[in-house]
Structure formats: structure tokens, C-alpha cells
């Protein structure tokens, strides 16, 4: 019999509530012969306040033992900005070399979008996860004085760019439309921009069936609201990916349904799956949070581990649930989780 | 009698056509006693191909003699990406210390927006223009090899941040709603982020009437499509400003009506005004380009030089013209320019 060893990090705010639903649906969808073993970790604001720790080497060793990680949300207003982001979220992405940050955007039937005319949106963003302006390189001199200088260094390597570009081409090749857009700002950030563009064009030669285009990040934000149907697969840098995936989530149904995977395709370290939304402390503990994004993240997790049929069942269940919501009174986090668990078991 | 010495840079693609309309409307709106003197400069792709030059020291000396600069668009597919951007547009911004990059977004009646429900949009973005990731710092080693490393350095100084933050507070204080949002990514770009946040909070103490908020750039893209009415004045870094102002233009009527000023508030160098759109080579020479963005840039130019009444007359004329377009056949670039000239003279 098979087993799935899952590290569970509920985290802060609504993280607890939504992760509970994710696990509920996961248990319901898994084949009988798969033994699910979960271990919960207490990372986040509480642990930080109690111990000063965000993510220790021992923590990383423990997490390494699992097949995958499911995370709710990390972040709380009581912790200074940057401490948990750099000390936990980014530290984990870097430590486990999560270089493929996968973020699908699909506008499902019945789901509200701020865009007029209900466009057809169905694309995925492959965001680089371990380089660019996220490396923490840089520094400050003369802090707090009128002569302060603060720098941020975006670091980009052929190695790092090529592996994520290859991943994106492979994903584009496997989709019916076979389209891939590179998004950067190569007319201004010419050093990094040329590296990305060169690697992209070189790898493109190996994928003659994939139609490619290049787009500046500023222009991309325009297309995301005026012609989102034009996108199929997008590959982009860490920071641009951060920005455009929030916009992509907004236009394709909101961050209530936006899932993501922080993937190490080699399998050398466990991959981590999380909703794009944060801890939303304003609605935490009220049973108001929509667990759909977490449940869809569980689908990405299952697909990553080879459970394709189960992933698809979850996605279908969420789509059906969203379609049926129209005009109905709002349900609680728990009620939505129950409904999804019933559907996937069905 | 007064005079206005204007440097005119039609540039590439549709630049020629739209600048002609801007000048037409400028002539029509200026008081009788103001002597308008224009001098045209041939910067852009043609000059680059003919001479290899983008913007020489002699050019800068010549431009320096003018009261202001009106630019159409610079950029052509025949020139490698980055050459004209870094060699002309950014070189000019840096040389003339255009640190306030002003970009208003107002959704005018009758103007189409990709957003559902025709929200009320009326805000301005004060984008820093001379620092951040735009400085050209960085470099490449082992170019073209599998070991290539490319860096981009974002440089941020207390001096540079404070002056643009002060400009934004003064603008917020002068507007009815008196709201100012700082947009950054201070949870990841902690060095630059802390500098921006510290300076912002310090200057805020001098403006007790201004309501402030901080927002991450990724979250800002969500609010720009779900709640654009929440914004009044935004102050942000060079790159974030580049990205969100294209999105802002898209939601508030498109880049056909988005104006901008590259302003040196001290007056030490002439300021430069330009439409946000580029050279649009695909429609160049066909009389299809909407000159409204250029005409609105002329309004910003006039306001900067103290011609407030004339600036307002142009803005009213463009608003009236746009409102009357609904359901009418499309007019040519020239026809729109003529109509606006008649209105402002009226
Ligand atoms: C919280 C933050 C570190 C993170 C990021 O910037 O990557 C978040 O915005 C995301 O998109 O996952
Ligand atoms: C053309 C490019 C250099 C420029 C920028 O990035 O600033 C443009 O996008 C803009 O917004 O004015």
C-alpha cells in the first residue's frame, strides 16, 4: 500500500481554517490504499513571538522527510514586515530550491470577475522562485540619516533562468494551445533582460510547436485586463511573477480561488503548496474565509505527486461548487469544505 | 509680452501625428500675449540609424534652453530593445533630474473601461523617476555561457526618496480627499522598503490632514481592478510606478488618454511631457492614433508652467470630446485634434 507523508503548516490568521478544509478534501479524495500521514508544524507569528524563531535548520531537516508540504498562510500585523516573509516563506523556498512557482488562473463559470464581459481566462504562470530581486542581496548604509543609501540586487543566472524556462516550455507543449509568453522588462533591466531573452530564444528552438511572444511587464498588466484570453503559459522573473499573479488572480475570480505550488521538479526536496491569499487577520476565526484556494492547492499537490485523476476530481468539484453558489447565501468555511469533500468522494 | 520656448520631439511611429495635434491645441489655447516658439528635434530611430546617436551632450545643452519639452514617442522595432530606452528616454530623465514622474488616471464619462460597473476613478501616481532599478547599475559576467550571471541593482537614497515623497504629500494635501498611498514591496525588498517606509512615515507627521496607507505592489494591482476608487494620490518607486501606471491607464480608459509629465520641480532643467503610450508602429502613418493622451500631456505642461486656466480648458475639452464620441464613427487623428482646438479656443 502507498503512503503520503504530508507536512501541514496551518500558520496564521485564516490559515488554520482553510488548511482544515484542504485536509478534509484530501482525505476524501485519496484512494483507499493510500495511507495519509500528516504532521502539523507550528510556524508563524505565535512561534516567532514565543521563541524568536521562524524556521531553524532542525525544522528544515524535519520538513525534508515529507513528500510534500501544505501551507495555509504566514503573516501577522504583530510581526514587523519582512520578518516572517524573509525568515520563513522565502527561506523555505530558497532552502528547498522551489524554483518553479506555479500559479494557474482560470475563470470558472459563475465566478465573478471585476472585468466586463466575462472573458475566457485559462492560463498558468510559471514564476521563477529562487532568484531575481528576491535573493536578499543588497544593503543599507548610513541608515536613518539623510545620506542613507539602500540597494537591492537582482541576481539572475543562466542556470536558474534556463531551468524555469525549460519547465515553462514543457508545460506549454503539453497544453492544447501551446503558447508561451516571456514577461520581463528587457528594455530597461537590460542585463537581466538580455539573459532571460537569450535563454528563452535558445530553448524555443527546441520547441518548434510552441508559439512564443515577448511582452514587457507594464504592457502585460494592460493585456491581463483587456485581453486575458490571449495568455496560455507565462514564464517570468520572481518579482514580476509576484505582481502579475496577484493581478491574474484578481481578474480570474479573486484570491479566494487562486492556488499555487512552490515546486522543486527534481524531487530533491519536498514541494510546498499554498493559496495565494495571505493570512487575512481581519476575517480570521470567523469561518468566513473561502477554502477553495487551499483546496485547489491540494489539487496541485496531488498532481505533483502523480495523483492526476484525484487532482482533476478536486478541480471539477471546486468548479461545480462555485457554479452553484450564484444567488445563494454565503456558506461558512467549514460548510464549503464539507460540500467539496462530499463531491470528491461522490 | 510673455513667451513659451518649447522643444518638440515628435519621435517615432505615431509620435509625429499626435504631437502635431498637441501643438495645434496648444496654439489655440494660449493667451494672445504669449509668444509660442517651438523648435523641433529629430531624436529617435531615424537619427540613430543615420548617425548612431541617441542623445549627445550637445543635444542636452540645446534642450536645456527651452521652458519645457513635448515628446510624442520614441521606439522602433528596427532598433534593438534598450538602445533608445536607455540611450534616449532614460538618459533624458536622468540628465534633467526628472524625479517626479506624474501620471494622472481619471475615468472620464463615456470612456470605455475593461472593468465592470464603470467605477469612479480619479487618482494621480507620483512615480520616482531617477532611482530604483532604473539606474542602469548592474552587469553581466560570463555572457552567453551556461555560467552567465546578470545583476540589476536598485539604488535608493534618502535624498531621492524624500523629495518625491514630499512632492506627493503636497499634492495629496491640495486635493479634496487628501489621501496618499505608498506602494512598495517592503516585506521582500526590505532594504529599499524600509527606507521608503521610514521616509514616508517621517514626512507624514508634517501632514496631519493627509490620510496615509501602505500597500504592497502585488496587492495594489488587485485594488486597481477591484476598488480603483479607493485611490487619490499614490507615491511609488520607479519600477513599481512603471508597472502600475500602465495598469492604471488600462482601467481608466486606456493608453489612448494617459498623459504623463517627467518633472523637475526645481525648474533647474526643463520638464518633459509625453503620452504614456509608445510609438505604436503597427498603426503609424494611418491617421488612426488618438491624440488625446498627447493633448492631455500638453495640459500637464501648461499647468507646470503656471497656465492653470489653460490646462483646465484643455482637460475640459478632452472630456467633452470623449463624452461625445459614444456611438459615433471613429475620427482621424487630425479630426480629433481639430475638434479639440476649436473647443479650447471657444
Ligand atoms: C508574502 C510574500 C513573501 C510573497 C511573495 O512576494 O512571493 C507573496 O506575495 C506571494 O506571492 O507568495
Ligand atoms: C519605454 C520605457 C523606458 C518607459 C519606462 O519604463 O519608464 C515606459 O514604459 C514608460 O513608462 O514611460
UniProtKB/TrEMBL annotation, chains A, B:
PROSITE patterns, A to Z: IDH_IMDH
Domain Isopropylmalate dehydrogenase-like positions: 5-340
Subcellular location: Cytoplasm
Protein's pathway: Amino-acid biosynthesis; L-leucine biosynthesis; L-leucine from 3-methyl-2-oxobutanoate: step 3/4
Residues the entry annotates as binding NAD(+): 278-290
EC number: 1.1.1.85
Pfam families found in the cross-reference section: Iso_dh
Site (Important for catalysis): 134, 185
Catalytic activity: (2R,3S)-3-isopropylmalate + NAD(+) = 4-methyl-2-oxopentanoate + CO2 + NADH
UniProt keyword annotations, A-Z: Amino-acid biosynthesis, Branched-chain amino acid biosynthesis, Cytoplasm, Leucine biosynthesis, Magnesium, Manganese, Metal-binding, NAD, Oxidoreductase
CC cofactor: Mg(2+); Mn(2+)
Stretches assigned to coiled coil: none
Cofactor: how bound: Binds 1 Mg(2+) or Mn(2+) ion per subunit.
Molecular functions per Gene Ontology: 3-isopropylmalate dehydrogenase activity
UniProt-annotated binding residues for Mg(2+): 218, 242, 246
Principal location listed in the UniProt entry: cytoplasm
Family statement drawn from the similarity comment of this UniProt entry: Belongs to the isocitrate and isopropylmalate dehydrogenases family. LeuB type 2 subfamily.
Function: Catalyzes the oxidation of 3-carboxy-2-hydroxy-4-methylpentanoate (3-isopropylmalate) to 3-carboxy-4-methyl-2-oxopentanoate. The product decarboxylates to 4-methyl-2 oxopentanoate.
Assembly mode: Homodimer.
Cross-referenced PANTHER family: D-MALATE DEHYDROGENASE [DECARBOXYLATING]
Record-given protein name: 3-isopropylmalate dehydrogenase
Species this chain originates from: Streptomyces bluensis
Gene designation per UniProt: leuB
Amino acid at each position: 500500500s502507498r503512503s503520503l507523508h504530508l507536512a501541514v503548516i496551518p500558520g496564521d490568521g485564516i490559515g488554520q481554517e482553510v488548511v482544515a478544509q484542504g485536509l478534509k478534501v484530501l482525505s476524501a479524495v485519496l484512494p483507499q490504499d493510500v495511507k495519509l500521514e500528516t504532521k502539523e508544524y507550528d510556524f508563524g507569528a505565535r512561534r516567532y513571538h514565543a521563541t524568536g524563531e521562524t524556521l531553524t535548520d532542525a525544522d528544515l531537516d524535519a520538513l525534508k522527510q515529507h513528500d510534500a508540504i501544505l501551507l495555509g498562510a504566514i503573516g501577522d500585523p504583530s510581526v514587523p514586515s519582512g520578518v516572517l516573509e524573509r525568515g520563513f516563506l522565502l527561506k523555505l523556498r530558497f532552502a528547498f530550491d522551489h524554483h518553479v512557482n506555479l500559479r494557474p488562473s482560470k475563470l470558472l463559470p459563475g465566478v465573478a470577475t471585476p472585468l466586463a464581459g466575462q472573458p475566457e481566462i485559462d492560463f498558468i504562470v510559471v514564476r521563477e522562485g529562487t532568484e531575481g530581486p528576491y535573493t536578499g542581496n543588497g544593503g543599507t548604509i548610513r541608515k536613518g540619516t539623510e545620506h542613507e543609501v539602500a540597494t537591492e540586487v537582482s541576481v539572475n543566472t543562466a542556470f536558474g533562468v534556463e531551468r524555469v524556462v525549460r519547465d515553462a516550455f514543457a508545460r506549454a507543449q503539453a497544453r492544447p494551445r501551446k503558447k508561451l509568453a516571456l514577461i520581463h522588462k528587457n528594455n530597461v533591466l537590460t542585463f537581466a533582460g538580455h539573459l532571460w531573452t537569450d535563454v528563452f530564444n535558445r530553448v524555443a528552438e527546441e520547441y518548434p510547436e510552441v508559439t512564443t511572444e515577448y511582452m514587457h511587464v507594464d504592457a502585460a498588466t494592460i493585456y491581463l485586463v483587456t485581453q486575458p484570453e490571449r495568455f496560455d503559459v507565462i514564464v517570468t522573473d520572481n518579482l514580476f511573477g509576484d505582481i502579475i499573479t496577484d493581478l491574474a488572480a484578481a481578474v480570474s475570480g479573486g484570491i479566494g480561488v487562486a492556488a499555487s505550488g512552490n515546486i522543486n521538479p527534481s524531487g530533491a526536496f519536498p514541494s510546498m503548496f499554498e493559496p495565494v491569499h495571505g493570512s487575512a487577520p481581519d476575517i480570521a476565526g470567523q469561518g468566513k474565509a473561502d477554502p477553495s484556494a487551499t483546496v485547489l492547492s491540494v489539487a496541485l499537490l496531488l498532481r505533483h505527486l502523480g495523483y492526476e485523476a484525484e487532482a482533476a476530481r478536486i478541480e471539477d468539484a471546486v468548479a461545480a461548487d462555485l457554479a452553484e453558489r450564484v444567488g445563494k447565501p454565503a456558506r461558512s468555511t467549514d460548510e464549503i469544505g464539507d460540500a467539496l469533500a462530499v463531491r470528491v468522494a461522490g
